[in-house]
Write a structure and sequence with these properties.
The structure is a homodimer of 345-residue chains. Chain A has 345 residues and is an alpha/beta fold. The first copy, chain A, has eleven helices and 16 strands. At the A-B interface, helix 5, strand 9 and helix 10 of A face helix 5, strand 9 and helix 10 of B. Chains A, B: Keywords: Lyase. Chains A, B: This is DSD1 family PLP-dependent enzyme. Chains A, B: InterPro entries: Ala_racemase_N, D-amino_acid_metab_enzyme, D-ser_dehydrat-like_dom, D-ser_dehydrat-like_sf, PLP-binding_barrel.
């Protein structure tokens, strides 16, 4: 679905972000034929480079201390590009003997990282990078605050405008700026125009989650990862159940707290992933206990201690990070494959 | 400090909970000579049993499906006791050929798991367990809501009274009830009397965290685990920094949101663990980015990109779970040992 949305824009390259999936098997689906990818940690960069994905952007501001690790990957055949919004870091990149390509991070409204498209830092960093400058990059994390498709489309257009303004300034100053990279899953889905942009990054779309479904990035039933849990306690008089999936199994992410529907720590589904009456949620999460609160009477008669349920995640990136592998299901409950993940840093 | 608090009560055994540390090296300090321990997952039970800690309580409600795994550990020499608050699960325990010892979980006010000390379920579960009944167990997680030492002492006394009421009822019905086990770090620190209780469980005290410090379980400077992070971005005009430690490195736990001081996603310290002016916190946590917000001007002159800082955790159990090992420091920054952890389930 997201691939189709990106394909609406002629010439726009999808550079999937593997920070959510962190899995070679998923990368083979999202970036077939070892196409360009985005990573968020050195551990991901190494893991995917060793598997054959050479064209990478390591899309978290680089430190001088990490340049040697990136250089080692590139010396072994990878083409990892780093990003920075800092003049001193830019000088360290330019001074590194490995000749590492770097993108300048541009702030298009989120206010997290990046330089202003119109400010003096952009020119200073470009001058410091010199021939190492490979492009500009932005992330519209604030698209997650969009509450309608129109609002997300407007954020996408503002991101494009800001990033292009930066690219235009740099080109006017004589820099080539081959890469113009932006993205987030909502922007990828809802952008009206991507003219002037060379590539789109998105990651969570591969799995989806309750928060993205609330944003309209995908339908709720398209969520591809769930946590399999067992009933460990029953309180029919309160219409609650305890699961052996708590904060460590689900994460304490509360993204949906500000969404139209608040799913607590996750939506509880039956063992085959189908909705339960009243759509119960994990209302409280302790380290290893999740307390399920029903809105309609829970079907206690078919939920003895030991019964299996599934929990759809608020935020797939954080929930998946609790696991070192995926069990791939076909037709409900049959495990047809086990896919590894690369966690840590 | 907690050991000393427990030692105030004659005959009371400390049964450390390894759910926070999940490390043999820490267990060797907390439960020397392979003393009794508490665990929260089958993975911990296996890991510690293989290392020599035989006397364990697996303190999360058991399911019938997990009994074979516990039985296998016990057949290999361990003495893992399970817990339940469910009559059907109790019948499955009693029917298991391995003869697994089980404790009945009693609700002493938290309302998470456990049966009421005075209700019919207690007697029904005891009757179902028969000779498998090894004792009663409670957890006063609501002690975390105590806002004064007097409030926590009162919760401790209520927990003791409830658990003893259950033990007394069972003994009157002819059961032996050798183990009377309760606890939490605040209760262990602040209980006035532990008469009739045989053992105390506590875990987070081994490391401490910002939330426990706010509760008065330990002084703030006693927090033993921090996350080492690097500056990856600077915004002097906003008095913010970006760190390469975000939601995955710190967890999204917001325990201190309801505490007297809200530390966001963690307290930022200098590289040697000393406070910074105005005690800045990680105010926003993205997957791999943490945004530090100063309350006093941040010392930007000594914080270039690449500078190291430490983040003290809101909730040590959740932050530690992001890592597969500890780097043990002596005298500030020298790593003198690496201690492994057992994550997962």
């Amino acid at each position: 679905m997201l691939q189709a949305a990106v394909a609406r824009h002629p010439g726009l390259q999808l550079r999937p972000h593997l920070k959510t999936a962190k899995s070679r098997e998923v990368a083979a689906l999202a970036a077939p034929d070892f196409g360009p990818i985005t990573v968020s940690t050195l551990a991901e960069a190494r893991y995917f480079a060793e598997a054959g994905w050479r064209d990478q952007i390591y899309a978290v501001g680089i430190t001088p201390q990490k340049l040697d690790a990136v250089a080692a990957l590139n010396a072994a055949g990878a083409a990892v590009k780093v990003i920075t919004d800092d003049p001193d870091a830019a000088r360290a990149i330019a001074a590194h003997p490995a000749g590492l390509p770097a993108l300048i991070e541009v702030d298009v409204g989120e206010g997290r990282g990046g330089v202003a498209p119109e400010g003096p830092a952009l020119a200073a960093i470009a001058a410091a990078l010199g021939p190492r400058l490979a492009g500009v990059i932005s992330h519209s994390g604030h698209s997650y605050e969009g509450r309608s498709i129109a609002a997300m489309a407007a954020i996408a257009e503002a991101e494009r405008a800001g990033l292009l303004a930066a690219a235009t300034r740099l080109r006017a100053a004589g820099h080539a700026v081959p890469i113009v990279s932006l993205g987030s899953s909502p922007v990828a889905m809802h952008a009206a125009s991507m003219e002037g942009v060379t590539e789109m990054r998105a990651g969570v779309y591969m799995f989806g989650d309750l928060f993205q479904a609330q944003l309209g990035t995908h339908p709720p039933e398209a969520i591809a990862v769930t946590v399999l849990a067992s009933v460990i306690g029953r309180r029919p008089e309160r219409n609650t159940l305890l699961l052996d999936a708590g904060a460590l199994a689900l994460s304490k992410d509360r993204s949906t707290a500000a969404a139209p529907r608040d799913y607590g720590f996750g939506l509880v589904l039956d063992r085959d992933g189908r909705p339960l009456p009243g759509e119960p949620v994990v209302a409280r999460a302790y380290q290893e206990h999740g307390e399920v609160q029903g809105r309609a009477p829970l079907p206690f008669e078919r939920l003895p201690v030991g019964a299996r349920l599934r929990v759809a995640p608020n935020h797939a990136c954080l929930t998946a990070a609790a696991y070192d592998r995926y069990h791939v299901l076909e037709g409900g409950a049959e495990v047809v494959a086990v896919w590894e993940r690369v966690n840590g840093w």
